[in-house]
Amino acid sequence: MTEPKQIATLPPNEEIRQEVPRSPRTGEPPRPVLVAIAAVALYLAAAALAVVYGIRWWEAAHPETYPTSARLLEWVQPEPGRWLSLALEGVFAGALVLAAGACGVVGFQAWNGWRWSRWAGLVALGFVGGFVAIVDDWAFVGLGLAAIGVTLLFLPPVTRYFQRWAAVRAEQPAPYRRPSQIHYGRLPRFR
Fold first, then answer.
1. Whole-angstrom distance, CA of residue 74 vs CA of residue 67
2. What is the spatial distance between Cα 117 and Cα 144, in angstroms, rounded to a whole number?
3. Which residues, in sequence order, are CB contacts of 124 under 8 Å at separation 6+?
4. What mean pLDDT do residues 92-113 have?
5. Which partner for 110 in 59, 102, 117, 165 could form a disulfide, CB atoms 3.0-4.6 Å apart?
């Protein structure tokens, strides 16, 4: 009689053992290229919004171009130098801080692997859309860059990256163990 054949098996791979691959240099999960592209797109969106605001501010500084320097100023038509025009300048600055700041925060937190940055990206798109609505059509450049960055955060490789970061953050470090004996003074081997 012949002996029964043994079933050949392979060693378990990383997915079965649920080990998170880590970068040997940083100890963090390796970042997919899409995360880098998304972060750069969101940073560029913030920069584009700041440039649009700067151009709008420059136009508002000159009396001949002030009434057409922003869409909201065309709608309200305030008298230059009065309280309403000054309040609207504060609104423009606040809208820039919200929109560009939200894009920057989302890009930075996505780079750091926080899953909530995807949903914060949708909020950032809303802020950028509001900025576009009250300022100028040139702000659509920032909206497009922000939309590209936020869309990339919802792709499967980025989702796996966020899951790996969640697993790394869930690991508990070894608790402190009090030594059984504490020796003060010179060690015995040096006496």
1. 6
2. 18
3. 42, 99, 102, 103, 105, 106, 146, 150
4. 95
5. 117
